[in-house]
Amino acid sequence: MTGEAKAIELWTRDLGSCLHATFATVLLHGGHDPVTVLGAPWEFRRRPGAWTFEEYYFLAEPDSLAKRLALFHPFESSWHRSEDDTLDELRAALAAGVLPIAAVDNYWLPFRPAYHDVHAAHLLVVYDITDTEVFVSDAQPPAFQGPIPIADFLASWGSLNPPDDSDVFFSASPSDRRWLRATMQGPVPEPDLDWLGKVLRANVTRYRQDSTGDVQTGLPGLRRYLDELCALTPGSEAAAEALSELYVISWNIQAQSGLHAEFLRRQAIRWKIHELAEAAAGVDAVAHGWTGVRMTGAHSRVWDRHRFDELRRHSTELLRRLARALDQLELAADVVSVRN
Q1: 3-state class of 149 per DSSP?
Q2: Whole-prediction pTM value?
């Protein structure tokens, strides 16, 4: 027992998933601003066939999840797997001042709308454990923070998360008593104009460069991926698989875009640079452009009516917005360099 549970800060965004929400909670607990740490990077990366049926999937390799989500900070994470139901590893992490992030199945969580209805892979933060209860923090709507019986937590944490027709995107991925340890492992950079300029140029460079190896990256990689996707034969197994992948991988890519727009807006206000505000609006348009792509793909997959004509229209608009946002970011970077 760790004593009386002290509430921690809930954090989420409309376009975000449990991945950004849980890492943000850990960052806040350590005294760091999630928008600065998680919002500074912006990129597109996809490795064909590398995705998994989880809400929190994000292509991080060869980096850790935390490192890839926080490219400009010494934020690191590592996956662990408990061999039993004792919760000893989670207790030890808490005793060391670390908030463990647990992989769970929504089906077994009493506060989730999916309780005893739908299996789905999810993440939440554990912030205390007593003899009878586990205190969990889950910022994703409907936002819950408080105790649940140990038995419920163990059922969710150790769930096989079997395939579920009610959620073809996030079921079929066992929780397997996995948990993430995420910590800042060094001094954070001073977010001055020099640092900001380097961040902007690094993001533009990654998006402008063509793909190398087996990972599709940047604007050229995204264009190639969407072209390949829209060229699939409607109604085929390959099309259904590809549409499932689209919804899974694009959620946290969209979330990162939305968070980067928020980061840019804050920097625009701080430094009074209107080109940064325009770039923020451009990146925000990209973030919302992903909605048409993601939702068209998801509805096509769930209803088994593959509308690649609609998907191509949304994809074309997304690519147009992205190209414009990169031009705006490049201009903002030039102005930041002059101001610095």
Answers
A1: strand
A2: 0.96
